[in-house]
């Protein structure tokens, strides 16, 4: 049962089995809707990892972290169902190659997601993949150089500077015509970070 939408106040609309839409407007309604969703998934799914991860997400105190982790969960839940072991949210975050890192605070992931949504849809996929792979290489290189690597904003700023230099020396670094969209993405990302 997917969450159909989340508004700016973190109220969400859930589509239940009976096809009735219910929108929560208070914290108690949100908790009730989430618990209803959790119970429904538990009753339908024989993979205990699903319920465990949803409980972890539900217990997060920061609503933006919760929102971004729910988006991540919805993106990977089909893989969790196929997993033959005990999977938890930390394993998912640490095993996912993304830019910014899935372990980044929710406000960083949200700022990036909102910036990405402003790009033409035709550009999002290859830019997202290219940046994720480049970020993974960038982090691995930093680790091999014994640099301390974490999810701080300075790491993301250093990565964006690295990409900017690569684009300046090769405008088609991540694909033909992508450099202008990457610059727009990074500018919007930095602007969004100041808002959150």
UniProtKB/TrEMBL annotation:
Residues 8-30 have a biased composition (Low complexity). Residues 1-31 are annotated as: Disordered. It comes from Clostridium pasteurianum DSM 525 = ATCC 6013. This is Uncharacterized protein. It comes from the Bacteria.
